[in-house]
């Protein structure tokens, strides 16, 4: 009986080991069936040919290969090995890549027939590509009374002169604070003028105002645009800081856009009157009516003749 018990125990253990080994082999076998090999691998083809059990899992994989789109051709460009040395004017030499695909007839030729001498290379000068600095707002000459920016445009069809008063800078006020305003005249008419708004407590006023003068196209080139810059004190009195005289010429009025112009202020002319005085008048001629109109504006410095008792 003891021998039977020992034999049964050993047989049971062997049976359990056999069952465990069979389970392990079955799991490995099932795991190998789930693997898929990349296309173009020769090992998959040899395995399918040597064993019939690989035929079924390979059939769906073959169908997926047929349904894939064709590969895009990729070509690596050839590297250029050659180099050519090109002479420079300064006596130095620079190496340039040699391009065999460039047609020789497209290259410039020298009278001697060489191609290398025609391709003159040089260093890039960055100073040539810089925008010129606008020094009109920073450079002021000694004794400058101020600077005025404005724009001028003439509409030929409407016979209108459009004047844009932009700004002024570096105004020299008689007091610590400056409250400037600008009066615009179209000479020789000094009786009528247009006036800007007063800017309070600034020597660099920004006006950004527009004015319109109605003037004929026949007389526009004979007119002079005058800007008179004043300082308004606490008593509302106007003190002249300077003036700008801008003759209206053809080249300044032609164009589709307004030209921005700047001028330095000039002091008022203080020439002494003549021996017998000065008389200021205005002339205007009407071509249609053939009529000349003379308007006496003012007189100053007239000399009194004592012997006659008249001026």
Description:
It holds the Pfam family C2. Keywords: Repeat. Residues 144-261 form the C2 domain. One of its GO terms (cellular component) is exocytic vesicle. The protein is of the alpha+beta class and 311 residues long. The protein has helices spanning 2-34, 42-50, 55-67, 250-253; strands spanning 83-87, 93-97, 147-155, 160-169, 180-187, 189-195, 206-214, 224-232, 238-247, 259-264, 278-286, 291-300. Among the domains are: 147-264, Immunoglobulin-like (Sandwich), CATH 2.60.40; 271-311, no CATH class. The chain is 19% helix and 31% strand. Strands 7-4-3-10 form a 4-stranded antiparallel β-sheet, with no helix packed on it. Strands 6-5-8-9 form a 4-stranded antiparallel β-sheet, with no helix packed on it.
Level-1 CATH class name of the domain at 147-264: Mainly Beta
The CATH architecture of the domain at 147-264 comes to: Sandwich
The share of residues in extended strands comes to 25-35%
Beta-strand segment tally: 12
Largest sheet: 4 strands, antiparallel
Helix content class? 10-25%
Give the low-confidence spans. Answer: 41-66, 88-120
CATH superfamily of the domain at 147-264: C2 domain
> How much is the average pLDDT?
71
Organism: Pan paniscus (Pygmy chimpanzee)
Domain C2: 144-261
Protein name: C2 domain-containing protein
GO biological process, one term: calcium-ion regulated exocytosis
How would you summarize what this structure contains?
The protein is α+β, with helices and mostly antiparallel strands and 311 residues long. The protein has four helices and twelve strands, in the order αααβββββββββαβββ.
